[in-house]
Design brief:
The structure holds two protein chains of two kinds. Chain A is of the alpha+beta class. Chain A has 24 helices and 16 strands. Chain A is 49% helix and 11% strand. Chain A has a six-stranded antiparallel β-sheet, with no helix packed on it. In chain A, strands 3, 4, 7, 8, 11 and 12 form a six-stranded antiparallel β-sheet that branches. In chain A, helix 1 crosses helix 5 (80-90) and helix 5 (80-90) crosses helix 8. Chain B is an alpha+beta fold. Chain B is built from 20 helices and 14 strands. In chain B, the strands form three sheets. A six-stranded antiparallel β-sheet of chain B has the order 9-8-5-4-1-12, with no helix packed on it. In chain B, strands 2, 3, 6, 7, 10 and 11 form a six-stranded antiparallel β-sheet that branches. Chain B is elongated, with a radius of gyration of 33 Å. Chain B starts with 16 loop residues before the first helix and ends in a 13-residue tail after the last helix. The chains are: A alpha+beta, B alpha+beta. Chains A and B meet through helix 16 of A and helix 9 and strand 10 of B.
């Protein structure tokens, strides 16, 4: 993809050049390039890597001046020239023919020193070689021992299972949007996994099932994170050492490595987040050539990746906020540029709306369309959705429904609330606890299909069994007084003047009576919305209300989650307000009556927008339901950046194959330190600028990179970390990893800038150069060595636990709270 | 030297009669018939309890806010000579003669009354005209909800007062910044800003939002100051330090001071003791301190102890065992070890006593001299009454099958050997050789064979376990959680060798000689932590509402109903003011963005100074509304209409700002301007009329007939109480 993109860029830029709106003359470009050349980043780096210091030495400080002096005002934006050079270097002769118009500009653009031309090929080649090296190393670490352990690890049990559901096309429900699991399913399908493995619990052996396709897919996306981070940092700082440091931090982080090796949503999510970030940064660099092909390309790619990120998990929202913030500030600058007409600004705005709002929304919706199209068989997720929706699923009893059409006395029915994500009227053998209304049997609503959802519809005044074959069938009619008897417990649906458990203004609803005999508080009038009295009641189609005869209240569900005593099901109340809301309207879903003939019914199928809305309601409810319990150990957001505690992926005892998700402490603590240093350095520079201090040109350049590039990354870290403090749902360590990517990139930029500043402040140029090289190398080697120490965490370890001196991890348990 | 004699002594007083008149009207509206009704009205039932606790010096814990507000209310009681003897048990209960109702309600009423002239001052300081400032004050004056809330023992009006005071003094400060920095008045207003902010936070936690707003505005101003090249570096530094001291250090110190005063006022043990740690309880007079006074400090082999769980949820409880065994087979068909139950019991009981035993010796008494138990030592715990050993093994616990069952070992079954060695892990030890101390040490008991940790699971056992709390061995020692931590509460050195003697000894009260006190800081930190984590039960109140209902006034709260007539007090806002204030906010936002966009294109509709004034007014008033309103959407506690009042106050301040702006800048001709003024007069009389109509519900002084009440029910959602005769 990268290669193709660059080629496209090359061709497009070349043709676009002469036609640029406010085109800079060749002279301008010439000067630019001249300035650019001597201080080009990869020169230092080549030097560093090969130890070849042949070039007449330019003091590092001076190089910095030149390079930074060249930095355009746009955030991290490289000018057109910087896009051109490596490309031409790479495919010089071939593109020379395509790049007709540019050929004429070449002599002027050429560096005065002819000698530079040959080495430029060399630089570009070196640059690509480095990228290839970084990518290769990343792939090598991620794919090494990917097949181990050959059993289900941690959340593979969920996501592998959901991948299988896609292959088997059975409908299920999950709190995350479908894209990630669809991709896992697709990877499994393509690699020949047949969807028959059950993924019952962690530790189950895969045996002959082909799981490598799914793991390989996740590892592939996880491996791409490193080159992405490398490119982002390179684009933001124009410094190869910074990019290399970032790449090293991420390659050698055991946490990222572990998280990429299993069938999880996180590698997919992080892939989209980083891809969105990368394309946003790239697109920012094209800011001086608006509406050119690369501009459009990167803009729409940003949109596509945003859709991907949101489509995998809802936390993809944070990268959307980041891109949104970037776009707004971008537009604000354009709007303030009086040389642009309002119409042009309007065009900019429209382009962004199209690519960053309309396109992602369309794609996001499309993933749902595919999701619902693929999953067309009934499965474990049916009950979460409305009756109408279930009719779409083959195998569900409502698909081509064949049930008695009209409700009759003696029928066994399930009653479903019409509001989305509320569920079936339910009761079970548990009483309301003391102090909460009368101590009678609980009545709730429940989303799963269950025997406790079954009710028998009876006449209010007789106890005769209506299913007695000697009696004629009697239909229930609009306005009839009925009783609903819970089939499993033989208690009647009952209400009385007691406060409902949560909604205090409503009345409590209970199950009451023994073997179907209760009192007059069990009588309900059944009404159909918008129908005349005396009509029969249709299954599925009739929207009914149940009105309590004695108190005159209406049966409804408030949609509030009951506490632990109510098994976190939803509250059912009887509301004295007769306002017509969906909460108090029900429909009859299952209908069993042996005396009536089953006839085929076509249920009103919901339209796609309805289905989409409904599934979101169900997901949000599901997410809110994931609450930690009081006495449980839970991971707190403040644990994460300090790498306080890991997550056990597999194995507990000495004999097990143990994998432990824990960040490489050297990397993580360096990141933490870097954030503090960044804030310190950033505020010093900001205050100095505000005070009007005249910074030396080279420091000015560095501080621009630090404030703009670093600022974006810091924003990313903040956005991907702090919202978790506000979340009520249960949290895990792995939620921090997107933020960790941003903080590693920030570390790369910060240390590069720090070393450059330090080198600049030294008098002797050779000492400065030495310091810079040594500083960078020691950071790189330090991380690599720490990876060597901690790699058993990710690749798995067998044998005694860390307390034991014979363990491979002996002496490495630096924090008490790490339990490996 | 005597030069001053040459000039006459002159005192020039500059009295703004408007302010005086507004204050007088404010006082009249808030203080009129203040001691009516002489009955408990709505939340007075809570605040009254706390006042009584203060009067009786009994310790209590209220998670709803820091103690400053409660102390202010209690000050009223103190001045009125209240002895605290009143049972605050239900709304509507008649006050007995010893309750000084007037002085108890005086403070909130005074602060409510003073908010009126303060609104005037704020708008003048913002640079708006005298008319606008009068308008703001007059609107505050006739806002029914503010009046109702000020006239009772409630804290909202106090909070609003301090919010406004913080804004006003900051404005005064920033206005004197231009002319005379570092003058006495500059210092005065700067410090007052900090003090008012900390008072606002001290009254209710939501005050913190106004504090943050003031800090943000001060931050922006300070940033401009840094950019001011005409000031030397030293003077900029002085400016910044002064601000930091007044706006950060002073509030922090004040906040601590509130707690210091609070803790020195309430020093007796009371009904909320159980929530606090043993060490905290021991620092109170009476209660646990009386029992534990003079206990030996260091736990030694042979000590008799009770072990309290530190987490204490769902209930504070002690490690317990009794004669009954786990049922052979549970309801769900799983089996148990059928050994003696170990539970956590929320009441003091002789079965809570355990003896610390050295596994190497047989003695159950303390040797002379006592050998203290240290961190890392392996011990056995013997149940005092049954002499069985605390044991855990690889059997699933009754309710938490992932954890191990904890039992007192009985050797029924030889295939199940005793595993009763526990390693002591003192969590808050000073050094590695820390000694196990009564009350102060928090310990974890780690099982030697299985490395399981003794933990309170929080589940209630069924009837066979007498509904006591389940204790388990947590196999995965997943870090630190308070439910795995225990501390010794009662402690004595065991002396009796024989079981019979020992039982007698266990029943006798402990003897004490060491007196311990926690430092203020430790007590503050614990109290603050408990207050922040105290969970209010999520259950809903009849009059609770959601933030969305507030803007449109879709909800009301019935505060009080006369026991016989239908006179009643109802929290209801002046609908005209609420609607127009919300409208003004929308207009402000639209105009602001419109100007902002045009300024970006270098089209300046407003002169620079009036633009700056417009922005500052918006930042403080619209910002004040937003920060006091939006956070409620994220809060999980039960919310009521009165939570909106601080936000509403800021919105009312914004209203005249917008009106004056429209009249000055948008009405281009004189005719339009006159027309607009006429409209304003009509609108204000309309607001007055609404005030007057709702007045019986605000003061509760007039009994209305059912038809009149029905006529007042302008919205279906207003629960106005109508007696059925």
């Amino acid at each position: 993809m990268l290669c193709a993109t660059s080629r496209l860029l090359a061709a497009r830029t070349a043709t676009a050049l002469p036609a640029q709106p406010r085109g800079r003359g060749p002279g301008a470009r010439c000067r630019r390039r001249e300035l650019h050349f001597p201080g080009h980043p990869e020169l230092d780096l080549d030097d560093f890597l090969t130890g070849r210091l042949a070039r007449p030495s330019v003091p590092v400080g001076r190089r910095a001046i030149l390079r930074r002096g060249r930095m355009p005002p746009a955030v991290g934006g490289g000018p057109a020239g910087s896009e051109l050079r490596p490309r031409r270097g790479r495919c010089g002769p071939q593109t020379a023919r395509v790049v007709g118009p540019d050929e004429t500009a070449k002599p002027a653009a050429r560096n005065p020193k002819r000698a530079g031309w040959g080495s430029r090929h060399f630089e570009a080649a070196g640059r690509w070689a480095l990228l290839a090296l970084v990518t290769l190393l990343s792939f090598a670490t991620r794919f090494h021992r990917l097949e181990e352990p050959p059993h289900v690890c941690w959340d593979e049990t969920h996501f592998g299972k959901m991948g299988s559901y896609y292959i088997n096309r059975t409908f299920f429900f999950d709190v995350h949007p479908p894209l990630g699991k669809m991709l896992i399913g697709l990877a499994g399908y393509l690699s020949g996994y047949d969807g028959t493995f059950l993924f019952q619990k962690p530790g189950d052996k895969y045996e002959h099932h082909n799981y490598m396709g799914m793991r390989g897919f996740c590892a592939f996306l996880g491996s791409l994170l490193v080159p992405f981070a490398y490119l982002i940092v390179l684009e933001l700082s124009k410094s190869l050492p910074a990019a290399l440091l970032t790449a090293a931090l991420l390659t050698f982080d055991t946490g990222c490595l572990t998280l990429s090796q299993y069938i999880l949503l996180d590698p997919i999510l992080m892939f989209f987040i980083m891809a969105a970030m990368l394309s946003m940064v790239k697109y920012n660099s094209c800011a001086n050539r608006p509406f050119s092909a690369p501009w459009w390309f990167w803009l729409s790619l940003t949109g596509i990746n945003l859709a991907g990120a949101l489509g995998v998990k809802f936390v993809g929202l944070f990268i959307i906020l980041q891109v949104g913030w970037n776009t707004i500030s971008d537009l604000w600058h354009l709007f303030g540029d009086l040389s642009l007409s309002v119409v042009t600004v309007g065009k900019h705005l429209t382009a962004r709306i199209l690519c960053l709002i309309v396109l992602p929304l369309t794609l996001y919706t499309a993933t749902y369309a595919v999701h619902f199209m693929v999953l067309n068989k009934s499965g474990p997720g049916d009950g979460f959705f409305s009756s109408a929706f279930q009719a779409r699923l083959s195998g569900n009893n409502l698909h081509n429904a064949s049930i008695p059409e009209h409700l009759a006395y003696g029928s066994v029915i399930t009653v479903k609330n019409l509001r989305m994500a509320i569920g079936y009227l339910h009761s079970h053998r548990h009483l309301y606890p003391e102090g909460i209304g009368a101590r009678q049997q609980q009545v709730t609503t429940y989303l799963h299909k269950d025997y406790n959802n079954l009710w028998i519809i009876k006449k209010h005044n007789t106890n005769a069994d209506p299913l007695d074959p000697s009696l004629p069938v009697e239909f229930v009619r609009h306005g009839d007084i009925i009783r609903l008897e819970h089939k499993e417990t033989s208690r009647n649906l009952h209400s009385h003047y007691h406060e409902a458990p949560l909604t205090r203004k409503h009345y409590q609803v209970t199950g009451y009576g023994i073997n179907g005999t209760g009192d007059s508080n069990d009588f309900w009038r059944i009404e159909v919305i918008n129908r005349k009295f005396g009509n029969r009641i249709k299954v599925l189609r009739s929207r009914i209300r149940l009105i309590h005869l004695v108190t005159g209240c209406v049966l409804g569900s408030s949609g509030k989650v009951l506490p632990k005593w109510g098994w976190e099901q939803l509250e059912v109340t009887c509301t004295p307000y007769l306002k017509e809301t969906l909460n108090s309207i029900w429909n009859v879903e299952d209908h069993i009556n042996p005396k009536l003939p089953n006839i085929s019914l076509d249920v009103l199928q919901p339209s796609f927008p309805e289905v989409l809305l409904e599934s979101h309601m169900v997901m949000i409810r599901g997410n809110n339901g994931l609450k930690p319990k009081d006495n449980e150990f839970t991971s707190k957001p403040w644990h994460w950046p300090i790498n306080y505690q890991g997550l056990r992926f597999s194995g507990i005892n000495d004999t097990d194959f143990r994998v432990y998700l824990l960040g490489n402490p050297v990397v993580w603590w360096l990141n933490l330190l870097s954030i503090a240093l960044y804030l310190l350095l950033g505020s010093i520079i900001a205050v100095a600028v505000q005070r009007g201090a005249h910074l030396p040109v080279e420091v000015e350049g560095l501080s621009q990179v630090l404030l703009r590039g670093g600022g974006q990354l810091l924003l990313g870290w903040i956005l991907h970390y702090f919202p978790f403090f506000l979340m009520g749902r249960i949290l895990y360590f792995h939620h921090y990893f997107p933020a960790m990517l941003f903080s590693s990139m920030l570390t790369g930029i910060l240390w590069d800038t720090l070393l450059r500043l330090w080198a600049w402040s030294l008098a002797s140029s050779s000492l400065a150069r030495g310091l810079y090289v040594v500083g960078n190398l020691s950071l790189l080697l330090g991380t690599a060595y720490s990876f060597y120490l901690f790699h058993p965490l990710a690749y798995g370890m067998v044998g005694p636990l860390a307390q034991d001196p014979r363990s491979p991890m002996a002496g490495l348990r630096w924090l008490e709270s790490w339990d490996f | 030297m005597l030069g001053f004699l040459k000039h006459p002594v002159v005192v020039t007083a500059d009295i703004n009669l408007n302010v005086v008149a507004l204050t007088a009207m404010g006082l009249l509206s808030r203080l009129w018939q203040l001691s009516y009704p002489r009955a408990v009205v709505f939340d007075e039932v809570y605040y009254g309890q706390y006042i009584s606790f203060y009067m009786k010096r009994i310790f209590f814990l209220d998670g709803s806010g820091p103690p400053f507000g409660h102390m202010l209310l209690a000050l009223g009681g103190y001045l009125g000579g209240f002895d605290g003897n009143f049972l605050w048990n239900r709304i509507g209960a008649e006050y007995s003669s010893n309750v000084p109702v007037w002085s108890l309600r005086l403070l909130p009423a005074l602060t409510g009354a003073l908010s009126v002239p303060m609104a005037y001052q704020i708008l003048s300081e913002l640079g708006f005209s005298h008319c606008a400032a009068m308008g703001a004050a007059l609107l505050m004056l006739i806002e029914n909800a503010l009046i109702t809330q000020s006239r009772l023992m409630l804290l909202e009006s106090v909070l609003i007062f301090f919010n406004l005071l913080a804004v006003l003094s900051y404005l005064k400060f920033s206005n004197s910044q231009k002319q005379r920095p570092f003058s006495p008045s500059w210092w005065f207003w700067l410090t007052l800003t900090g003090v008012a902010c900390s008072c606002a936070v001290g009254v209710k936690y939501v005050g913190v939002f106004t504090y943050l707003l003031v800090l943000a505005v001060a931050g922006v101003h300070a940033w401009h100051l840094i950019g001011d090249r005409s000031l030397s570096n030293v003077s900029v530094l002085c400016h910044l330090l002064a601000r930091a001291a007044a706006l950060l250090v002073v509030p922090a110190a004040m906040y601590l001071l509130f707690f210091y005063v609070h803790l020195s006022l309430v020093y007796r043990s009371g009904p909320h003791d159980q929530i606090m740690s043993s060490a905290f309880q021991a620092s109170l007079e009476g209660g646990l301190a009386r029992i534990t006074q003079g206990q030996p400090l260091e736990v030694a082999y042979g000590s008799q102890v009770t072990l309290k769980n530190v987490f204490g949820k769902p209930a504070p409880c002690w490690l317990h065992s009794h004669q009954s065994t786990y049922p052979m087979i549970y309801e769900n068909g799983r089996g148990s070890s059928h050994q003696q139950q170990v539970t956590c019991y929320p009441f003091k009981d002789v079965n809570n006593w355990w003896i610390v035993k050295d596994p190497g010796r047989h003695q159950l008494v303390v040797s002379n001299p006592p050998r203290p138990v240290r961190h890392g030592d392996v011990v056995q715990l013997v149940h005092g009454m049954t002499t069985r050993f605390l044991n855990t093994h690889d059997v699933a616990a009754p309710l938490s099958p992932h954890s191990q069952e904890v039992s007192c070992y009985i050797d029924y079954n030889i295939s199940m050997p005793p595993q009763n060695l526990w390693r002591l892990d003192i969590v808050n030890r000073d050094s590695d050789a820390g000694v196990w101390k009564t009350i102060l040490s928090e310990v974890r008991l780690v099982h030697v064979n299985t490395s399981a940790v003794l933990k309170l699971s929080g589940a209630h056992l069924p009837d066979w376990g007498f509904r006591q709390l389940e204790v388990v061995g947590e196999k995965l020692s997943r870090g630190y959680h308070e439910s795995t931590v225990w501390n010794v509460e009662e402690h004595r050195y065991g002396k009796s060798q024989e079981q019979k003697e020992r039982e007698v000894e266990l029943h006798s009260p402990t003897q004490m000689d060491v007196h311990r006190n926690l430092s203020f800081l430790a007590r503050f930190l614990e109290l603050q932590w408990r207050m922040l984590t105290a969970k209010s039960d999520g259950s809903e109140h009849k009059y609770s509402s959601s933030p969305l209902d507030w803007v449109t006034l879709d909800t009301s709260i019935a505060y009080w109903l006369h026991p016989r007539t239908s006179a009643q007090i109802h929290l209801l806002g002046n609908v005209v003011i609420w609607a127009s204030a919300s409208l003004a906010t929308v207009v402000y936002a639209l105009l602001f963005f419109w100007y902002l966009l045009r300024r970006r294109r270098k089209i300046c509709d407003l002169p620079e100074d009036s633009w700056l004034r417009w922005v500052l007014a918006g930042a403080l008033c619209a910002g004040g509304w937003a920060v006091n309103y939006v956070p409620f959407f994220l809060m999980e506690k039960t919310l009521f209409l009165y939570h909106y009042l601080p936000a509403l106050t800021f919105q009312i301040l914004l209203l005249p700002v917008v009106l004056q702006h429209i009249s000055d800048h948008l009405c281009r001709t004189q005719l339009l301007r006159s027309l607009f003024s006429a409209l304003l007069v009509a609108w204000y009389s309309c607001a007055c009329h609404v005030f007057n109509t709702l007045r019986p519900l605000t003061y509760g002084d007039k009994s209305l007939s059912p038809s009149e009440l029905k006529a007042l029910r302008w919205k279906d959602s207003w629960d106005i109480l109508i007696r059925k005769y």
